[in-house]
Amino acid sequence: MPIGGLEYAFGHAPQRDVDFVSAWHEASDTVKRDVEQYWYQYRLVRVADIDKRTAELAAVAYCGKELVAVSTAEPTEWMNLRLLHYRCSVAPSYRRREVTWRLTNFTFGLLGEWALKHPEDAYAGLLVTLEARQFIGHMGSPIISKHGMDLVFIGRNANGYQRRAIWFKHANVESNLFPAS
Q1: Could you tell me the pTM of the whole model?
Q2: Among 34, 96, 121, 139, which residue carries the largest CB count within 10 Å?
Q3: C-alpha to C-alpha distance for 161 and 130, rounded to whole angstroms
């Protein structure tokens, strides 16, 4: 069921509300088709990677019938901890409406609840790579707090982009350790 967000009085998009919909392990054929069209329109995912990335769908955002944002979560390992590598894309005309933050918050809650119900997967939180310009000016702080989430600096990737973790409240870094290989 869609969850409506707040309406913002700025930005370039028509000022209609955005609804967030879970796609984690339950994306409908309509959502999958809309996401594939979105990725194609914005040239975000190579055709060869469509099936893999579709399997990682976490949540989507619609304004009416228009898909305006997509989030994915890929299981990954960081410092012997299991995390979900979070990616988010927002259509250009919706980027000034805080859709990125709102979708991230929705997805964080959704995946945190899922992880709590599936302790066998031992996910401790989200791993986020900050690439968007909207974070410039906030990136000097080791903790970025917004919408009840703390994005904690944990290092940089090979391209120099900051990596941050958003830890689930129930996470236990001792119990989420991978066995040493």
Answers
A1: 0.84
A2: 34
A3: 6
